[in-house]
Amino acid sequence: MLPVLEKALTVFAGQFCMTGSRLLVQEAVYDTVRDRLAERLRNVRVGPASDPKSDMGPLIDKPNVERVDKIVRDAVNAGAKAIVGGGPITDGPLANGAFFRPALLEVSDNSLPIVQQETFGPVLTIQRFCETEPSRSPTTANTVCPPAFGREIWTARCGSDKLYSTLGGT
């Protein structure tokens, strides 16, 4: 499942209306999912979309790199924890382009703009929940989730990992 989660964020460098930008993970598997996903995101090869060795291409332009970077910095200043800091590439041959490394932010406050608004960049928030039924989780209460946005929750149930969609049932 981790490769799917990685690609949900990095396809089109997160500039896609259905980009996975929020991940809710049950407490029983949270640390494992967070740590393994963080390792995958740290290893994403950012580069020209035309390079077959690249895992993720650039953002549309430099102003969007600055915009996404500001969103990440604001989220961290507001209480999010940068598990993978991401950010603009400022050294080497890619520094002249609009390249942004993927970011993974741990959040617990649903009111943060990073949770409530679409980033349109390679930034994923991850939240822990403690309930066995995702629909009863306090993390999902009072959450803005327009019908166009999909979200999924990774849970441990009956001794095995299972992905539950909060929009489509089990």
Q: What features would you highlight for this structure?
A:
170 residues, alpha/beta, six-stranded mixed β-sheet, two-stranded antiparallel sheet, 4 helices, 21% strand, globular, disordered C terminus
Characterise this structure.
- The chain is α/β, with parallel strands linked by helices.
- It is built from 4 helices and 8 strands.
- It has helices spanning 2-10, 27-42, 62-77, 113-116; strands at 22-26, 81-84, 87-88, 100-101, 103-106, 123-129, 152-157, 160-165.
- The strands form 2 sheets. It has a 6-stranded mixed β-sheet with strand order 2-5-6-1-7-8, with helices on both faces. A two-stranded antiparallel ribbon has the order 3-4.
- A hairpin with a 2-residue loop joins strand 7 and strand 8.
- Helix 1 (2-10) packs across helix 2.
- The relative contact order is 0.21.
- Residues 138-155 and 157-170 have low confidence and may be disordered.
Q: pLDDT average, as an integer?
A: 82
Give the count of helical stretches: 4
Percentage of residues assigned to helices: 25-40%
Return the string of H and E elements.
Answer: HEHHEEEEHEEE
Structural class: alpha/beta
The percentage of residues in β strands lies in: 15-25%
The first-to-last residue Cα distance is 16 Å
Strand order of the largest sheet: 2-5-6-1-7-8
Number of strands: 8
Low-confidence stretches: 138-155, 157-170
Largest sheet: 6 strands, mixed
Q: What characteristic shape results from the CA principal axes?
A: globular
If you compute it from the alpha carbons, what radius of gyration comes out, rounded to the nearest whole angstrom? 16 Å
